[in-house]
């Protein structure tokens, strides 16, 4: 089915910006190897550039943490029902759910219960190696195929009878940042090339930013960081909140949203901003890999509601949650989680990183190599894995 002219119907579901980027690359790959493909789904702006109109605004699904989800429970439940009904009405050959497992796996399960002829693929293996290990066993009942971003993940899935391919991570295919890109970025946002920069990334969800930004700003008010200009790449819907919290900082602050750019251009601009910073202070998540891709040393800090923190801490099965550490099997990237996500702890680690700017270089490079850097066919691997298994 993957190479012919008989047509292929694909329904995609993504719930976050990182999933949107993965989905956009996947769509391009499928179109490259399979003719006459029709796509529908719940998608973000980058996937919409490929001609798909989203069933509803994907950002409605971008919540994290048990207590953060509770207030939106009934709305999420309605969106779940709407999505499942849309899939069943469309009758695709394949349902591809991308990351956001709490929502996406529920969609896949309900679709499978109603129509066993629709093939189900989940892109981005859930973190069964970190917590909720029984999830893989449950997934085997309704997921046919998993695409894994990390090389250590397939054994966890295959042990439960799920087909699983390590397809590498698209971040490893990032083109190097050019001097021209740096110059345009500095000019566009009045970035002083003679002054050192810190890039600050308190998350992509409002709940994260509300919790982390006050702590991060407390760090940045410390005297040792007064000489840095502060770069806050964020999403357009978070711009006003970020500005309201940062306008009292003594440093020169640049809040960058890429609102006037295409989704692809805005993503590229983030990497340019990252590459021009001496270091980053960032929330836990995929952003650690984005920073690694351009060689920017980092400190990771994260906290959540006390109840979510307590429950997740009790279930956690790894001693680090930072992806760079997990992939490289090291503890080189400092992370301040939960009770340690405090101004004094973060300040100490960030100061140490700035005093030893090359200390993380080898780990960042090794991480990208393990994710597939140098493989000229890296971008094609997810599409080929799906089509070859149809």
Q: Report the span from N to C terminus.
A: 7 Å
Gross morphology is: globular
Classification by helices and strands: alpha/beta
- Please work out how many helical segments DSSP would assign: 17
Share of helix, binned: 40-55%
Topology diagram in text:
Blueprint: E1 8-14, H1 17-33, E2 37-42, H2 45-48, H3 66-69, H4 73-90, E3 94-98, H5 101-114, E4 119-123, H6 135-139, E5 145-148, H7 154-158, E6 163-166, H8 179-188, E7 197-201, H9 206-220, E8 229-233, H10 239-246, E9 253-256, H11 263-275, E10 279-282, H12 287-293, E11 298-302, H13 306-315, H14 323-328, E12 335-337, H15 343-355, H16 361-370, H17 381-388
Parallel strand pairs: 1-2, 1-3, 3-4, 4-5, 5-6, 7-8, 7-10, 8-9, 10-11, 11-12
Helix pairs in contact: 1-17, 4-5, 9-10, 9-15, 12-16
């Amino acid at each position: 089915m993957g190479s012919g002219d008989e047509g292929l119907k694909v329904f995609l579901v993504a719930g976050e910006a990182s999933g949107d980027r993965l989905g956009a690359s996947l769509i391009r790959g499928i179109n490259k190897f399979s003719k006459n493909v029709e796509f529908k789904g719940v998608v973000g702006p980058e996937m919409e550039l490929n001609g798909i109109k989203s069933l509803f605004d994907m950002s409605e699904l971008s919540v994290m943490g048990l207590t953060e989800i509770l207030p939106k429970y009934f709305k999420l439940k309605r969106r779940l029902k709407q999505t499942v009904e849309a899939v069943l009405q469309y009758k695709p050959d394949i349902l591809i759910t991308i990351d956001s497992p709490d929502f996406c796996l529920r969609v896949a399960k309900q679709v499978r219960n109603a129509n066993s002829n629709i093939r189900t693929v989940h892109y981005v293996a859930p973190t069964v190696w970190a917590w909720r290990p029984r999830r893989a066993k449950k997934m085997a009942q309704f997921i046919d195929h998993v695409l894994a971003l990390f090389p250590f993940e397939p054994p966890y899935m295959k042990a439960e009878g799920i087909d699983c391919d390590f397809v590498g991570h698209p971040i490893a295919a990032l083109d190097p940042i050019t001097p021209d890109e740096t110059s345009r970025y500095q000019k566009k946002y009045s970035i002083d090339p003679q002054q050192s920069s810190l890039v600050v990334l308190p998350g992509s969800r409002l709940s994260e930013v509300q919790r982390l930004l006050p702590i991060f700003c407390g760090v940045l008010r410390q005297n040792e960081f007064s000489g840095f200009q502060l770069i806050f790449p964020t999403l357009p819907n978070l711009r006003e909140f970020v500005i309201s919290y940062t306008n009292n900082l003594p440093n020169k602050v640049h809040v960058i949203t890429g609102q006037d750019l295409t989704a692809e251009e805005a993503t590229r601009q983030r990497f340019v901003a990252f590459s021009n910073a001496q270091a980053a202070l960032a929330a836990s998540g995929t952003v650690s890999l984005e920073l690694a891709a351009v060689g920017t040393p980092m400190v990771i800090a994260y906290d959540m509601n006390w109840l979510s923190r307590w429950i997740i801490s009790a279930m956690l099965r790894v001693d680090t949650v930072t992806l760079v550490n997990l992939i490289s099997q090291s503890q080189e990237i400092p992370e301040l989680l939960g009770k340690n996500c405090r101004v004094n702890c973060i300040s100490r680690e960030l100061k140490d990183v700035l005093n030893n700017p090359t200390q993380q270089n080898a780990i960042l490079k090794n991480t990208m190599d393990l994710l597939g850097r140098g493989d000229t066919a890296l971008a094609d691997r997810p599409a080929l894995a799906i089509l070859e298994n149809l």
